[in-house]
């Protein structure tokens, strides 16, 4: 029912809902800016929403049915972990109908308040510690069939809890802020990208492609597998850890952002230095290839008689 991609096609203060006009043609982003930054960029500059934490947010026409099954998701990056920062929420009369956010104590969380009232208790699922300046994928699910909240971080389920009571928030979906006691707040300073909202409860498999697309995941496995077989000890250790991890772990290991080389390239540099320092080499053939190549390990020539 909603997909806000924050692309270069948007002009002025408008933000297009790519999911379809029946859910509202878009949103107003006020002073928030769209800049060339995005999680896992691959094909040149990509865009994301930039918020300054001082009132910037996007207010949409989308109304998620919070009394029925729903799923909300987004990529988020915080400039610092020094405040409560809402990634996604939806306005009720006195409080947000749900919130996908980072708490001031440094933990990601997904929660739904027990009523549309001031100073109300919440049903909350807490996630891992927030890493400042790192893009993280967050997804909150309410499954009405089993009356359960589920929270996914970078495609993995991190927790679940039962919902205490059910009510419907009738306001619009908010990007980059929340609401407490009828007042807007919890403005996020950082970046947000690829916002989605769906009716229905999506499972882990249904969310995976929004974290790392299946084709990208297959490509990463193949590339890291090549590094595993061609590299030295440091490369092998990094590649083995990546292959044993999640799709997100492998993408993070192999991703090259701008002029920054990926983790395996740095591991290959370390292997080269270790060989130079530790081994009594009498002769070397060839030279290391450019950063990023599979042949970055030096080939040793056994000493002659």
What does this entry show, briefly?
This protein is an alpha+beta fold and 305 residues long. The chain has helices at 204-211, 214-230, 233-244, 247-254, 263-278, and strands at 2-4, 14-16, 26-28, 33-35, 48-52, 58-60, 70-78, 85-91, 96-102, 107-113, 122-129, 136-143, 148-153, 156-162, 173-175, 178-180, 183-185, 189-199, 284-285, 299-300.
Structure report:
The longest helix has 17 residues, at 214-230. By secondary structure, the protein is of the alpha+beta class. The protein has two domains: 2-211, Jelly Rolls (Sandwich); 214-300, no CATH class. The strands form four sheets. Strands 1, 4, 5, 7, 12, 13, 14 and 18 form an eight-stranded antiparallel beta sheet that branches. The protein is built from five helices and 20 strands.
Largest sheet: 8 strands, antiparallel
Q: Give the quaternary arrangement of the chains.
A: single chain
- The residue fraction in helices comes out at 10-25%
CATH class of the largest domain: Mainly Beta
Low-pLDDT runs: 21-25, 284-305
Overall strand count: 20
Name the structural class.
Answer: alpha+beta
As for the CATH topology of the largest domain, it is Jelly Rolls
What is the approximate shape? elongated
Whole-number tally of structural domains: 2
User: Termini, distance in Å?
Assistant: 74 Å
Question: What key attributes describe this structure?
Answer:
disordered C terminus, single chain, alpha+beta, 2 domains, 305 residues, Jelly Rolls, 8-stranded antiparallel sheet, 5 helices
